[in-house]
Amino acid sequence: MNKIPFSPLPPAAMDKISNNFIALGELFSRMMPSLREQLYQAEMEISSKKYVAIAIVTALFYAILIFFVLIMLSIILQMDFIPIALMLSIVFYAFMFFSVLSYPRIITMRRMRKLETNLVPALRHLLIEVKSGVPLFQAMMGVTKGYGEVSEEFSKIVTDINTGKSETEAINDAARRNASFKFRRSLWQITNALKSGSDIGDALQAIIEDLSREQVSAIKKYGQELNPWTMIYMVAAVIIPSLGLTFLVVISSFTGAMMPPIIFPLILFGLILFQLFFMNFVKSRRPAI
Prior knowledge:
This protein has about 290 residues and is mainly α.
């Protein structure tokens, strides 16, 4: 069984318990037709209804855990936390449920980014082999190492061909199991060249030129995006905290009110969180090159 995020129990136990929620899983999976394709592209060998059932069990476990922890705090502190416990449990259930459901898409996006990073170098390798007179199958074998996710995909293509599939069928299967439009478009152009009998080298040359132009365009766009984001960073991480602290000191000196000692650690903690968020955000916007 595939690894499920936030799973509180061993896979065998989760599989057994989730069987009781298969009907609900099937109902919800019909509302999310894209989930089946996302699981396939994430290489998770599990049905969509089964995955939704596991997501329900996982979210339910953590919601019940949060509820009982808050109830215990209510008893210890002798305060009525029941309404808050119910509300937080429902909110946490929804958060965990949709977090688990989004996991296949996250895995697919990570694979897609890694694949597109090495796509152009791999296609250049393929072009050199083909232009040198090497058959396409032998050229694809040469790309099965050294190019990360791209090598893994071409390795699967080579394996499929060795098991009896035609080159066109194996390449089309690889295109279906990948979410990267650039990779799929490259494979489609190769299969079109195979079907029409045209020169594969010319098709590869055209693909590489198109992808190179797109990379240059993506770099320019990224550079233009950095200017406003840099300004936002300066305002949020430097100017606002500095002016805010100055304002608080001036107000406290005029009013004689003492600032709570916790205010400075809170500001520092908030700045650290913002720094981490901003760095991850900028990194996620960087084009896969």
